[in-house]
Amino acid sequence: MNGLNTILIIVGLFLIGGVISFVKQGLPKGVIALLSIAAAMCLVSGVLRLDYWN
Asked: pLDDT tens-digit profile of 11-32?
């Protein structure tokens, strides 16, 4: 596990926290959808970069 995939996973978890906060605040659904897509992309790319499959 190197630094980049760790950073991607941490940023993805941070963005998920932002999604939860935005939902509680009642912000527009478009902003929440965009943020959740960014969080999912960060988490998926961080997990796929792990060296479990080698």
From this structure: 999 999 999 999 999 999 999 9
